[in-house]
Amino acid sequence: MGDDGAAEPGGPVMDREEVDRALARFGAEHEAVETSLYALQDHAGRRLLEGAELTGVTKERWARTEEAVSLLWTYFDAFTAALDSARGLRGESRWPAPDDLAELTARLRGPAVAVPAAHSPADGPGSGPEPKAESKTESGAGPVERITLAELVARMNGWYARSLDTVAAADSVWSALPARIDMLSAELQRIRSLAHSVGVRPGEHPAGDELEQVTAELTALRAEVVTDPLAFWVSAGGSSAPGGGRPDTVRYDRAARALEDVRREIDAVLQVRQDAEQRLMRLRDVLSRADRTLAEARTARGEVLAKIAAVEVPAVSGPPTALYEQLTLAAEHRRHARWHRLSPLLESLEERADEELERARASLTAVTAPLAVRAELRGRLDAYRARLARRGAADDPVLTERYDAARRLLWSAPCDLRAAEQAVLRYREAALEVLAPPGGPADGKPAEGGSAGGEPAGRQEEFR
């Protein structure tokens, strides 16, 4: 609506030009007010508010706004009558009479417009009455007051701005939130259908419970937005234009985030459905390998106990029956499409099956360690003899005796590993003595360096 721009009441009588300028100014104000009122009358938000069942903040503010709009039209009629009367008094005369100019000055500047006395109905509780020149009660009517045209325009501008703010805010919320809620609800229904197909249901899976909560929240949110849109309006504050602000989407955004979390959970379950058979096959393979490894360890343990003496051999556990039972349960979940239960079970089984295979391998290594030690001692004994043979010293009586003693221990059953190891060491020491140069060290240690008639230190190093 327009700006009043009129002179203050009182002062000298206006001349013809001042009167004409004032009439033109108020004529423009009248046209602007009329255009604004009809635009407000046709505003989609106002029509929606008129036909809606309102509650809360919106119901309260719309009641005040309806009163303001009604008074706006009453004041506009008074504005129209006052302006038409002033224009009629001005007439077409080029030189109006002094009395007419004085009357026009009183009408255009003074409190010449009678209107119903009223508070600003679009304000909240506690708003005081608008400034007025004088008020009285006319016969057969309520309290009236007389105000200037400038005051009338200013008052109408204020009521119009507040009325438009209410209507525009409600329309903005209704234009934004219900459509977004409906789109999110459609996505919710799609996710609910997917959830049902993979067995995600309330009371059986956390995602099913979350879906129920999101459904209830969206239903409640839409009902509240439709009946009380202004409760979801964040005003820009300050001196913003009518309708300045934005819809409050905090609850909507929270529901959207929760639904997105559920969607990711459902996608994970769907992925389990696609990969379940392959993962179950891998689990069977891993557990079968672990079982075979444990069986091999048990067989090896019996062999070790029969062939190795005076050695502690660790016990071997039985097959992973508990994991096989859970694997059977996983297959049952897959067969009955209980994907929401299968998903965490598969993850747990995969981790434990890998651990079981590693444990079986470690058990086999620990059980066969004595056999590995015996094989190593056998290899060392034969290697020492082969090296001596290359130097023509293998038939030495002492070496032959010690070789036979060590060989009997290593190839007998059960084998005493400690005694066999000592016998191999004695054979090595005798070999070093035979190969030691004359005058060399007698303690079996290698010589510091070679000599003209003796064995080089490098040959003795081969027995280390």
TrEMBL record:
Residue ranges that the Swiss-Prot or TrEMBL entry lists as coiled coil: 252-300
Keyword annotations from UniProtKB, A to Z: Coiled coil
Chain positions covered by the region annotation Disordered: 114-142, 435-464
Protein's recorded name: Uncharacterized protein
Species per Swiss-Prot/TrEMBL record: Streptomyces pini
High-level lineage: Bacteria, Bacillati, Actinomycetota, Actinomycetes, Kitasatosporales
